[in-house]
Amino acid sequence: MPRFFPSQFPISNSISPPPRLAMEQFMDSSFRSAIPAAQNFISVVFFSFAAGFFLFSVLLLLLRSRPWCNCEVCSVYLNSSWTTEFDNLSDWYAHLLRRSPTGTIHIHVLRNTITANPENVEYMLKTRFDNFPKGKNFSSILGDFLGHGIFNVDGDEWRFQRKMASLELGSISVRSYAFEIAAAEVSQRLIPLLSSVSGAGPIDLQDVFRRFAFDSICKISFGLDPGCLDLSLPMSDLATAFEIASMLSARRAAAPAPVLWKVKRLLNLGSERELRRAIRLVNDLADEVIRQRRKLGFASNHDLLSRFMASVSNDKYLRDIVISFLLAGRDTVSSGLTTFFLLISHNQHAAAGIHEEIDNLISGEVPTYDELRGMHYVHAALYESMRLFPPVQFDSKFCIDDDVLADGTFVRKNTRVTYHPYAMGRMETIWGSDGHQFRPERWLRNGVFSPESPFKYPVFQGGPRVCLGKEMAIMEMKTVIVSILRAFHIEAVDGGELRPKFAVGLTASLAGGLPVRVSRRAR
Length: 523
Known about the structure:
Protein name: noroxomaritidine synthase
Number of strands: 11
Helix content: 55-70%
Distance between the termini: 142 Å
Transmembrane segments: 41-63
Strand order of the largest sheet: 1-2-7-4
Organism: Platanthera zijinensis
Structural class: alpha+beta
Radius of gyration: 32 Å
CATH architecture: Orthogonal Bundle
Number of helices: 19
């Protein structure tokens, strides 16, 4: 047999494996190539399950919120068909409440019971106060913005802040300090500003009052001066971001199903992304306020933040307190002043009554504290203005346990219950047939101001949560009103509009502002 020598055949670079080994290698490579495909399949199955579970949860939440209610009121709300007859949602609510025999209505898709009945208001705010707190639902709506500030908490947190604020706002030294700040802001900035535009073109008075209120509250509360009351300068970043956060937080409360804004927040989409950006800026600037106050020292200062810092070391908690101060002091004061001058521009009789009181009692450019206390007609006119246009048009609580309101309305637990000062100011059952008219005399008895029950007039709330800054806010607004009307005539451009359209927000503000012409008052 011939012998084969290696030189007779070419030598291969590799030696072929045995058949069994080749099969094992093939199976091993096939298995390795199948792993990515299996991983992809598992990922798709997991994602599909997660997405299905998420959609199922959303569906359950929607079903619980009853967005399918077909009653006439809910259909009108969901379709926004009320806009064909009313300029504002609050006007439509007021219309429904006037038609209700009990002054109470239900918006089922919002799980909301709304009332304009003073007996119900007293029941909620005083008689059964513990059963109608702000509640977790309300706190979740405003929690990102207001955090653990006094307007967004219940229980021990609320009691602590309430006690601290009560001690400070009730002291004579703080009230004197606040009056000095407001009087200086009026005489040194507000009056010169109005003098500079006197006889010129229109000016947005709402913008002026926002700037004034922001400067004042920052000085009173933080001992810092943002210098906003200069029309040549833009509003501060904090003021602008605060306004955006207020508007977008209010939109959450109007959503038919809370899950809608919660999903948008989770995915950081649309308005929730804008809200997150605004809140981040508000928080950063509020933190800077605290840092500046701490840098300047707070042991011997009269501002409210310094007094809180003496007892609170948690900067996040202090930040929430700062934001609450701004909400209370800026938006409500500017809102009250704006609608006051809107009404006065349409009521020459009331303007004449104020001018007579000013001429008889005021000796200087800015009234003194004692002079303000004797101005009963001005006080009555301001209360009458806020009766028709309250800075906070409605306020909501959440019912903890099943309850029955004073008018016999059954309220199921975990239901939102809203009392509506804006609608209450338009109820003939409360204010008589002339309730729609601006008439300061309804508050006077023999020429002396005579207040009504806080549950008939809940502009400053009532019961344990009654507004602690009420006297300070009234003093500040009266100082502005008297000082302006003593020196100037304010005329709303094109006659103004006594059916104003309000912008969306936590407090009432006029959409488009309040354009006015300013002229020197002939004396």
